[in-house]
Write a structure and sequence with these properties.
Elements: E1 7-10, H1 16-27, E2 48-51, E3 54-57, H2 59-69, H3 82-106, H4 114-136, H5 149-155, H6 158-168, H7 179-190, H8 201-218
Antiparallel strand pairs: 1-2, 2-3
C-alpha cells in the first residue's frame, strides 16, 4: 500500500463507515487516488477499499487490513495484546449495533419509537463512558496515546451525533453527564487525520432531510 495510485476508496461523504476508513488511511499516511464518491450511504454497500484493484469490503475489516498492510507506518490501530484487541472489537461492534440504527430512527429514516431510540443512544453512551476509562487508562484515546480501532469506529459517528441532536432536538453529548466521552470527542474531531473528513453538521442535516423525503417517496 505504498503509492497513491494503488489505493481507492468508494464511499459516501456522509457515511460514517467511509469516514472511519478515510481517517484510518490518513493515520497510516496513505493517499487515496480519488476522492470519496458521493454515493448514497444508505442504499449502497459502502465503503469498498480497492488495493491494486482487489476489493476489500466492510469498514471494520478494511481498517484491520490497513493496519496489517501498513504496519510499519504510523501508530498501530489495533492493540498488540490479544485481550485488548478483543475488548476493542467488542465495543466497536456494540457501537454499530446500538447507535447507528437508533440514529436512523431519530432522523425519521426508519420507523420506530424515537423515545426508545434516544434511550438506546443514552444507554450506549453510559457504557462507552465506562469503557473509555478502562481502555484509555488515563490517556487521550480509547487506543491510548494515539487514535485506535474503537476511536475510529465510534468517532466516525460523531458528525451524526451533532446532526441528530439538531434534527431531534435532543442533547446527547452532554459534558456533565458524559465528561470523558465529550472531551474525547473534541480531541478526536480536532485530530489531523479526522478534521478534514468529518462532515459539517448543517450539511448532514440537509442530507438527512433529503434522504428521508426520497425514502418516503419510494415506499
Amino acid at each position: 500500500m505504498a503509492s497513491d495510485g494503488e489505493v481507492r476508496v468508494i464511499g459516501g461523504w456522509a457515511c460514517p463507515y467511509a469516514i472511519r476508513v478515510s481517517a484510518a488511511l490518513k493515520l497510516k499516511g496513505v493517499a487515496k487516488s480519488e476522492l470519496l464518491l458521493k454515493s448514497n450511504p444508505v442504499y449502497k454497500k459502502i465503503p469498498v477499499l480497492l488495493h491494486h484493484g482487489a476489493p476489500i469490503c466492510e469498514s471494520m475489516i478494511i481498517i484491520q487490513y490497513i493496519d496489517e498492510v501498513r504496519a510499519s507506518n504510523g501508530p498501530a490501530i489495533l492493540p498488540a495484546e490479544p485481550y485488548a484487541r478483543a475488548i476493542e472489537r467488542f465495543w466497536a461492534q456494540y457501537v454499530d449495533d446500538k447507535i447507528a440504527p437508533a440514529f436512523l430512527v431519530l432522523r425519521g429514516f426508519f420507523n420506530g419509537d424515537k423515545d426508545e431510540a434516544a434511550a438506546q443512544v443514552s444507554t450506549a453512551l453510559q457504557h462507552l463512558e465506562e469503557a473509555f476509562v478502562k481502555c484509555s487508562q488515563g490517556k487521550p484515546y480509547f487506543g491510548g496515546d494515539n487514535i485506535g480501532f474503537l476511536d475510529l469506529v465510534l468517532g466516525s459517528h460523531l458528525g451524526w451525533f451533532k446532526a441528530v441532536e439538531k434534527i431531534a432536538g435532543i442533547k446527547f453529548l452532554d459534558e456533565d453527564t458524559y465528561p470523558q466521552i465529550t472531551e474525547w470527542a473534541d480531541r478526536f474531531c480536532a485530530h489531523q487525520a479526522v478534521k478534514d473528513v468529518m462532515p459539517e453538521t448543517d450539511r448532514l442535516v440537509e442530507f438527512s432531510a433529503n434522504a428521508a423525503v426520497k425514502s418516503k417517496a419510494s415506499n
